[in-house]
Amino acid sequence: MTDPALVEEPRPELTVLDIKRTPRGEAEDITVSLEDRTRPGLQVRFDYAFIARQLNGPVGIHVEGAAGPDGALPRLGVAILRDLPIARWERVARLAATVGPLEGLAYSRDVKADAERLVRFLHPGVDPHSGKAGARRWRRLTKLAEVSLDYYRAQMSGTHRYAEAVAEGRDVAPATVRSWIFQAQREGITTEIVWAFLSAPTQAASNA
Fold first, then answer.
1. Residue 138, SS3?
2. Which residues, in sequence order, are CB contacts of 82 under 8 Å at separation 6+?
């Protein structure tokens, strides 16, 4: 029997591969590259312009097919282009362009370890070994961080019923999940912070 702890966690359908930022005077050009596991062989990029503290665009959308084993260039026919989930891709790309990766943090796909890393980053003064009060505070924050990671990861994967997806996995009501997300935001575990974390480069799971 396979140890569940050794089974690799399924990746989200949509993954942010790269966020390229190019200064242009007082503005900034931003290119977000995505991978959609449901559309293998396609390379997707969205171009944005950050001007006067506002994200504009997309000003460009690039969908390219990877060359075949024989080097032949792909042909993206009307039927393929018509069925592409452009709106879903753009929602993820826009959020990634808005928040970008957090310096010094990396997403390991180990939810517990990632939640602890987020809490240490946001609340460095909370020590789970400082007594009962500190332990309670640590448990509360890490639980809220775990729920937030699950919630926004579901959103990044393209799932529309985020609260329902997380609630099913935790055997609670969707309203409970929404309450936890609200509490997390009040603790500084905001949409922008979690999305930036999920957009960061993936590293091997670590409790460090």
1. helix
2. none
Separation between Cα atoms, residue 139 and residue 63, nearest integer Å = 44
Q: How does strand 27-36 pair with strand 54-65?
A: unpaired
For 96-127, write each residue's pLDDT tens digit: 787 655 544 555 668 888 899 889 888 889 99
Rounded CA separation 139/112 (Å) = 11
Cα–Cα distance between 64 and 44 in angstroms, integer?
A: 7
Render pLDDT for 48-80 as a digit per residue (tens, 0 to 9): 998 887 889 899 999 988 766 676 767 788 888
Query: What's the CA gap between 80 and 55, in Å, rounded?
Result: 29
- Express the helix, strand and coil content of the chain in percent, nearest 5 each: 45, 20, 35
C-alpha 134/C-alpha 69 separation (Å) is 57
Mapped onto helix, strand or coil, the DSSP state of residue 19 is strand
108-132 per-residue burial string, b: 16 or more CB within 10 A, e: under 16: bbbbeebbbbbbbeebeebeeeeee
Three state DSSP letters for 108-126: CCCHHHHHHHHHHHHCCCC
What is the C-alpha separation between 170 and 168, in angstroms, rounded? Answer: 6
